[in-house]
Amino acid sequence: xxxxxxxxxxxxxxxxxxxxxxxxxxxxxxxxxxxxxxxxxxxxxxxxxxxxxxxxxxxxxxxxxxxxxxxxxxxxxxxxxxxxxxxxxxxxxxxxxxxxxxxxxxxxxxxxxxxxxxxxxxxxxxxxxxxxxxxxxxxxxxxxxxxxxxxxxxxxxxxxxxxxxxxxxxxxxxxxxxxxxxxxxxxxxxxxxxxxxxxxxxxxxxxxxxxxxxxxxxxxxxxxxxxxxxxxxxxxxxxxxxxxxxxxxxxxxxxxxxxxxxxxxxxxxxxxxxxxxxxxxxxxxxxxxxxxxxxxxxxxxxxxxxxxxxxxxxxxxxxxxxxxxxxxxxxxxxxxxxxxx
Length: 341
Prior knowledge:
This protein is of the alpha+beta class and about 350 residues long. The chain is about 40% helix and about 15% strand.
């Protein structure tokens, strides 16, 4: 009975460990590295695991050998020989941990220098991409200052190139983390941190805020989209191009709604954005609304009418009284914001 009671105590922990493997997200794990930083982290996790496994096996082997060899025999009431100090053993259990710690320390220290090296890649030179990241409650701003525009919630990078990120925070402390590409670095108000990332292959890599920053912290997601250099240059050219007037009547009406309701004051369309809200220059190609909802017309309307109900603590203004006709036109306009086609 006592054994069953003990087992029940470990059941919640067992379920928690089981559920950690049920995330179902692609490119949102450090266990499937897609860049040199994440590969280094993964290799060192394996090295640490191997060292810990070796120590565990050896310790338990010695424990059970001693338990079997020196167990008390029936009728043996003599006190065992008492040992006070053993120089050979003491040297052994001092030297072995030093060796194991050295095995872990050498790659860790050399790796720290590699991770901290935010100098541009000499092979890329002047074409190195620099991105200024600003964390807000609860969204991300990506300023391509050299290129002259701002992206919101989705940051584009070229494949196979070292990209330098300059990290800031507008309000409270956040943490910029793309598990498949590298480790996390905090964004702190008043302090500038730096990070570099590189993607080995094209793809969409999901990012998270890894620092508790408010009620909607868990929904502060973003995406890193890695493109081949030619595709990346085409995207940059599209973002730099002058914004064209909508050709469809409904979308044109939506632009008027967008401006009449003051949306343009927070959300930039082309050029450099502001700290008030995410830039919407390439909104048509986003797959999510508010950082986590599927980008459907229904979800977009729900977000515009009552953002607080979907993302607590955000600063988006609500438009519950907007007419259905204006809402339809506004959504059509947002769907027309496409720099890639």
